[in-house]
Amino acid sequence: MNTNDLNLFEAVAHHGSFTRAAEAMFTVQSNVTARIKNLEEEFGAPLFTRTNRKVELTTAGETLIRYSKQLNQLLDEAKRSISKSDIVRGRIKIGFLETMMTIKGPELVNELSARFPFVELDFRSAMRETLINDVLNYRLDAAFVPAPLDIPELEQIKIKDEQVVVVAPGDCENLDELLNKQPLKTIVFDQGCVFRARLDSWLVSKGIAQYHKTVMNSVEGVVNFIEAGIGFSFLPAEIISTFYSARKIKTFSLPKELGLMTTILIYRKDVPPTPALKAFISFCNNGN
């Protein structure tokens, strides 16, 4: 076993695929498969469960990946100590909701690169549950997700509070008019979206169980459909004021329990953060 074997092992865990891991590590799949087999023989336990659709860590694999990340951190610290360099280097994988990535992504890249120019950010957008699972399964180093969250394995830092609003076509006068339309039409993201869940809860509280849904996969698409008068949605107020204030749409406030959303940064407690992740956490924790 060598550090390259562990890097290949981490790549398979991250991508959930031997083929994609090989592509990411600039090697061939047969090499990845052989190295993982050697690791499994060396440790005397299967490290992955393999199906036609995906590859996932076993309990033994989860144990090994924790040690692998600790070893990589120790090697990084050794290199910095020997070279007597205070420069923080490394690559970190960070997850976002698409709406937050739209707002905060460019700002984070600009400000972090100014402070830590040798830290590379690899962003991924997904639904809340996917982001949480990817952090738990070591595919992401950290992720920004809406609170509340109660998972003992995860550390969490409060990042910000934001307002969620009803976004309606520009000719809508009030919420009563909106809700009285027949058929009632909504523009939503796919299942698992926190904004869709809040919209569903709000309509249920109004006694509305049946309504038409048009599913979109981008903020731009949602706004375009709302502006065209096709329906309404829930979105962060900041994203509307920042990017869509000139559009023919209108926003309405919501009760606090639905309108206030707290974003937290999550990462695993059992894996010591790398210098790059430490820098990122410190950067976010200082209100940036």
CATH-defined architecture of the domain at 161-259: 3-Layer(aba) Sandwich
What order do the helices and strands follow? Answer: HHHEEHEHEHEEHEHEHEHEHEH
| CATH level 1 name of the domain at 161-259 | Alpha Beta
Low-confidence stretches: none
The chain-level structural class is: alpha/beta
Helix content, binned percent:
40-55%
Commentary on this structure:
The protein has 288 residues and is of the alpha/beta class. The protein is built from twelve helices and eleven strands. The strands form three sheets. Strands 3, 4, 5, 6, 9, 10 and 11 form a seven-stranded mixed β-sheet that branches. A two-stranded antiparallel sheet has the order 1-2. α1 (3-15) crosses α2, α1 crosses α3 (29-43) and α2 crosses α3. The mean pLDDT is 88.
Which tags fit this structure?
12 helices; Arc Repressor Mutant, subunit A; D-Maltodextrin-Binding Protein, domain 2; 47% helix; alpha/beta; 288 residues; elongated; seven-stranded mixed beta sheet; two-stranded antiparallel ribbon
What's this entry about, in short?
The protein is built from twelve helices and eleven strands. It is an alpha/beta fold and 288 residues long.
